[in-house]
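quick one
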Amino acid sequence: MTDAEAVLDEAGLKNAKVREYVTYWAELTGAARVEVVTAADDARLIKEALEAGELQPAGEGLYYSRSYHKDTARSEERTIVATSKAEDRGVYNNWRSASEMTPMLKERMRGASAGKTMYVVPYLMAPPGSPLEEYAVGVELTDHRPVVLHMIRMARVGIEHVENLADPNHFVRAVQVTGDLENLGQGTDNDQRYFVTVADERTILHFGSSYGGNALLGKIAHGLRQAAYDGWASGKFLAEQFMLIGITDKETGRKFHICGGFPSASGKTNLAMMLAPDALGDRYHVSFFGDDIAWLWVDPADGRLYGMNPEFGVFGVAKDTNESTNPTGLRSVGPGTGAIFTNVAYNEVTHEVWWEGKTKTPPADVTGWRDWRGRLISERTGDEVDEPWSHPNSRFTTTLANVPNVAEDFEDPRGVPIDAIIFGGRTSDREPLVRAITDLAEGVYDGLTLGAEATFAAEGVDGQLRYDPMSMRPFMSYSEGEYAAHWLRIVGAATDQPIFAHVNWFQKDPGDGHFLWPGYRDNLRPLLWLLQLRAGEVTGRQTPVGILPTEEELMLEGCEVDPADLATLLDLDVPRWREEMGFREDHLKQFDGLPEEIWEAHRRVAAALDEA
Ligand code: OXD
Ligand code: MN
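structure w/ manganese (II) ion:
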């Protein structure tokens, strides 16, 4: 056992509550060494990780890592929110009592870091000086060096974030213990993993994974689950799985900000990093704030809703990132950025990386190429030949500052005023290109009924969505009824309300299956219309489910969309909508204590559709 106290002294870490926490867990996990980490340690830790074979070089200042092959994604079934109050149980949060879970996790973690280093990673999930800073402080303890390297990219890391706290005890305790990955029964009846957020104690206990989504505790467990709980318990803010972008009108100098939620595989990262289409680029500039999390609050000084991205980096899905879907994403992982690729394919001779969709076909010369599991492509036989080279959830990790169009004020502690909140599903019919919603309850109702079609027809009933309220289904930390009420209260406190909208880039022609809308950079067009609607510069056309643009109102110069397709994109399929209302009713009925305003919004929309 290590002398943790001496290490903490040497690091100059003085916060007594942090010291107590570190020494307690060092003792319990049996770690052989303790090391306190600051962002400035990155270069040394990279070097150590390369020497240890945890990372491999992937070009100038770029790195490659593979995770254990059964440890490549978040595990929703094993993820639990625990508190001491049974009222916190929701439909999606897998609620269990803290008195049951905490001892169980301690038992699993006891002695489980023997022989390993326990890294102490003090972090901040906010730009320093943010009004929400007190909810953003945490200390992750991890026994896996690549987790530290990811944390340095994804959060602001350093002991300064835990010193001089107004309340020295007010930090999130975030413990990640990897365990013996080869013997954890992942996905079997005997699964040993548990990913628990003890939300009312602000303690996160994750056992059994070193994969990013389970192990970078600042991001999902703190930035979403814990923060959502804190935001509700304090009555001060919302923490949502939202992207956040800025749009500048260069002609008038006006700036707008849009945030919004998209269920996975609905193009959220691509949208967040989007550039204006060429034909509109002289007038409009799109800037990037964040691709995955936004915290939202109202500033009573001006009555506006504000938003900020608590993260410091991007943990993006690599698959299908290419020059046309996301050129800025590619630049953000270019030479010298310090980016880390995980579970993509790797060429051990040239140090190149490749993933499905990076180019149309994989590299023709397979010399040196290994798939995400480390197997040589050249040795594939039979059916293996058709297997993907990279894991579908392979990732790139890079800092926000590496994104070429990052907003100049992305670290402004005041956050940015939010003009619009959008929800975007993946729907092949029914859902128009954009429909704006000006009523708060109808906007929240729309977020609660957000969803995406099951990826494979076999997974669900045809045309029925897998609902993913506000894109928070895997991150809900308290009951959905309370969640809806909290949304109404927070956004309702803004005297200058943001406009809501639902967008859909994925309508298809029922005949030949082609996408009706070109998507990607052209997605700016419906967003510009939305901002013009909010400013009263266009009026659109009122429908039962919101205001739709007219063709003339959309700025379509340089946009290649077929006129017949455009007509469909701006139309409503009323019979399909009526059917959808039945599904929505069943979905919402699951939630206890849903505010009456939400039910009223549902009934209003249903009645308007009946009359249409
Ligand atoms: C996620 C992520 O799993 O952002 O949603 O990594
Ligand atoms: Mn996410």
